Amino acid sequence: MSNLREPFRNLDNIEKNKVNLRQLLHYFRYRNLGKDLTKSISVALKKNIDQLQQNRSYTTYTWIGHSTFFIQLNGFNIITDPVFAKRMGVEKRLVPPGIQLYELPTVDLVLISHAHYDHLEFSTLRKLKGEPAFYVPSGLKNLFMRKGFTNVHEANWWDHFQLQGITLHFVPAQHWSRRNLFDKNKAHWGGWIIQSKQKTFYFVGDTGYFRGFKEIGKRFSIDTVFMPIGDYEPEWLSGLQHINPEKAVQAFLDLNAKQFVPMHYGTYRLSMDTGPEALDRLQKEWQCRNLSPEFLDVLKIGETCYLD
Q1: Which residues in the chain come in under a pLDDT of 50?
Q2: 38 near 52, Cβ under 8 Å?
Q3: Is the entire prediction scored with pTM above 0.85?
Q4: Euclidean distance between the first and the last CA atom of the chain, given in angstroms as a whole number
């Protein structure tokens, strides 16, 4: 919890990794050493856009890229951290969006995990069809209002919103927040539980591995978790704020969830690791733990999963 004068904090007051200028220069100089940058993650050749546009009854989820999922549940069209930018800073988008913005159906709900630019892009939000309600971490509502959005709902950890047939819960993550030099941790961060009588999804957002996964697993019976696996290298830069593939598998086990859907890899290259690297490490750890392949749902960009 926080007030307007104090920054938000992680559990146990864990802060993001601290870096100095020398480390940062070394990082950029050797970032590509030994990396194969010729390979990208897979993109679905066939899209189900017409079916998604007409659907208001079946449960589906589609990976658009990075942390952006289009989810259809109980008649709601939901999108998480919608970012369609061709660039993220100096980095080009490595794969096209799984669905183009103009192809999206009308959106009812937008869930935002935190304020970083690769998760909150106002140029995308303005182009969404319909008049969606925005569910955002505490500290972001005023920014949304200044940008012209009015149907905005703020949440602290463990807050929930009861809608027609679904409940949204804002849950902890281990991360941080910033959009300019003066607003560090002035807005919160977290993940979203999307709960219905039929299915419960957990959109993790951005996080390091932390004890909160066990608590979330105790409170909710999770069917599908959308879990980040990328932007973890080097450890000294990202280890406390991003989760590597091996720790992501442990988090899945902590949650006692039924299905693991990896995200936050291969769309933008924001750290030293690459998308194919992250996916390879995930699959190796899965086999090492003797986990059933049926519990791991690796989507191609633009691929849709139909649940009923």
Answers
A1: 1-3
A2: no
A3: yes
A4: 38
